[in-house]
Amino acid sequence: MVVHGECHFIKQTIRKPPVPIGQYPDDIVINATFYGPRCLQGSDGKEDCLLLNVFTPELPNGTDPNIPVMFWIHGGSFTSGETLIYSPFALLDHRVVLVVIQYRLGPQGWLYLGTDDLPGNAGLYDMIEALRWVQKHIRAFGGDPNSVTIFGESAGGASVGLLMLCEPARGLFHRVIGHSGSAMVPWATDEDPIPKTIRIAEIAGCPIDNEIAMVQCLKTMDQHALSKARNRQENEDRLNDKIGFGGASAVVQRSGGIYEPLITAHPSELLASGNYINDVPVMFGANKHEGSFVLSVVWEDNLVPLNRTNDYEFLKTGIVPVLISMINGRDATEEEIQAAYEYFLPNVELGYFDKMMPGLVDMTGVLFIKQGALDTVRLHHKFNQDSFLYSFNYEGRYSLGPFLIGDIPEIPY
């Protein structure tokens, strides 16, 4: 399809479930004149969603295509998102081939039991298979398979950081850009995923006292119902002062099932040791008010339903340790709590949300996004000096802020 001089190749299907990877036919003809379905998310989407869109400014004229490739991984907390919302036009002005992928979300993409049937990280396997597709086919669209930049935002930013830790992804990309996410953010990996998987199964109505029966139930039940069960578990978590990423994060794998395990140790351990794909330039960064989104989620899913928005004592002494614990996935230490008050809330009249809000936005932004980006760049710099950190501070006329923040006018965006 040609639009404004650019050629768009839509819905390049990676594979059809349940055909094993590597066994799909190469000669299949795809109708690429319309967008395909998004992956399962709540009551919407389909299982047959592993597709990618290719946008190119020109088709190859010779035998050696040389247009750099940019490979986009969308965000959405590993539970939502799709290719359809990303327009290629701004990037195509700069002569790149843009590939926009989809990957399995929520429990279909990330559920983990440490077994061959539920080894976790299915979403990462999808991303790697899409990168293999690029290596095999991108020349047909004018792209250079030896010049692939992976980039993503939020969960996509965490994903590009995680792909650096995956040995099967070695050689499939050559540069990394992470926006508002990295492998080092606390929500990128779940250090205790099995209890959450069991709770999701219980909510979904599966037996939980027999692992084989539970796995069979999870695999054969209506997958929209399974997605809704994970969403219910998320809401439960947030009402219990947790962040709610259960069943929707990468994990350190004890087994990869029939596939090679991808994440073999915690990201901090792999990055510190150099035992990862460290020969690629990287750039990670964040927006100025990253914490505004996190704080709005906590407001809506925790403070409002628990009647904490005007609770003077809670806002004075409770909200800081709760936020630290939610984001880090463990109890806050006294040292962390004291440091947060001293650094983010000095000379602030405590107990009033509107007075504390600017400091809370800064604090949650650092804990949720910015510290992970800084740690990633610092660790990578030991092995590769092409390591860059950025901060996006421009506040333009158009913004998703009002949509994300909703009815909390005090929070900046």
Automatic annotation (TrEMBL):
Superkingdom assignment: Eukaryota
Enzyme class, UniProt record, top EC level: hydrolase
EC number: 3.1.1.-
Record-linked InterPro entries: AB_hydrolase_fold, CarbesteraseB, Carboxylesterase_B_AS
Stored PROSITE patterns: CARBOXYLESTERASE_B_1
Residue span, Carboxylesterase type B domain: 17-401
Entry keywords, A to Z: Glycoprotein, Hydrolase, Serine esterase
Pfam families assigned: COesterase
Gene3D superfamilies named among the record's database cross-references: alpha/beta hydrolase
Signal peptide: none
Family stated for the protein in its record: Belongs to the type-B carboxylesterase/lipase family.
Protein name, entry field: Carboxylic ester hydrolase
Organism from which the protein derives: Artemia franciscana (Brine shrimp)
The organism's taxonomic lineage, starting at the top: Eukaryota, Metazoa, Ecdysozoa, Arthropoda, Crustacea
